[in-house]
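Data card: per-record layout.
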Amino acid sequence: MSETAPNTLQYRFDGPEDAPVLILAPSLGTTWHMWDRQVPELTQQWRVFRFDLPGHGGAPAYPSGSVAELTERLLATLDGLGVQRFGYTGCALGGAIGVELALRHPERLASLALIAASPRFGTADEFRQRGVIVRTNGLDPIARTSPDRWFTSGFAAAQPAITEWAVQMVRTTDPGCYIAACEALAAFDVRAQLGRVGVPTLVLVGSEDQVTGPAEARTLVAGIPDARLAVVPGASHLVPVEQPAAVTDLLVRHFSTAWQPAYDSTTGQMAAIQAAPVKPVLAAAPPQPAPIAEIAPAAVPPQPAGRPDPYDAGIKVRREVLGDAHVDRALAQADEFSGDFQEFITRYAWGEIWDRPGLDRRSRSCVTLTALVAGGHLDELAFHTRAALRNGLTPNEIKEVLLHAAVYCGVPAANSAFKVAQQVIREETTPEE
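The structure for this 433-residue chain is written out next.
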């Protein structure tokens, strides 16, 4: 067990001290206990290192809002322990950390396994919406629906104790850290960089995973040059819990045969791999799997000299604040007559003003809501109320903004604004059953 500083993570070791280190990383809403069934066998060959995400499993609530920051906190923890080289297995958000390690710190990785992972987890809107629900209702709605996302219906019905364990695990997570982790997943997108992952990689997925399923797994395998795919039958998203024996067997085979030698400082290269990675084969898999295609990394367009065009920053900020669905709809409706206007507001409203560092986005949302009330722009007030929720304002804070606007903009204007905002808040903060 560990003493945890703000820039490190809560961790534990199992297994012989002189064995090579194998890291098991959790998914959002879980703790290191999701790997309990794998530890007895893995510790026969490795010193197993497990960690909790911030605010999970009783870990101190020091939120991290990006995958890169979580990765640096993991490396700071390992540096403090003198662990320089390791194998790594990560589930979902833990898998995102694994990809970040492979891209930014390949010299630290001996081998990699990605479980229920994806180069992009759904859409940014989905995770920001989840953050809105947690900010408004707490974690209980997310906790109650977790078994539906994590397990097949048959497993959940047959294993009520594990199902309740899953619900309680989410309920006891710190809400602020959960929201920060949602923001990290919302911003994570390495689709164009997969070709640079140079470590032997196993991509493992449950056949019934509806969150990051076989399609996402095949995208990873197609993009990572030295990757192999294993699909575990009868398992959903939290496959290490639902099918522990199959997952343990696949991990043992992968890390036993695809452990890349250390970086050779005399040659500036990795030493040759002694044993080629073995493609994991489950009982249900065909004896001769089809070859896996390799995709070259996407070409990076040359950057123009001088001041960058604010359009690129503007479209990014516009999507983050208003959501992909809203922006896609606005751009799709643009024609020869209105297209220049869409480009104008993207470049100047979003790229020049919203992207300025002088105010944070919460403050800009407050200013925008007040201005829209003053102008009577109720259509725009609706989607900027949604934007305010994404930017971190609570419904109570939005109410205070509208009350303040009633004094300075007029009661009739605020009365109309309250009706619009009330409907939006109900839609955005009501958990889906």
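Known properties of this structure: The chain is about 50% helix and 10% strand. The first helix runs from residue 39 to 42.

See the next section for split statistics.
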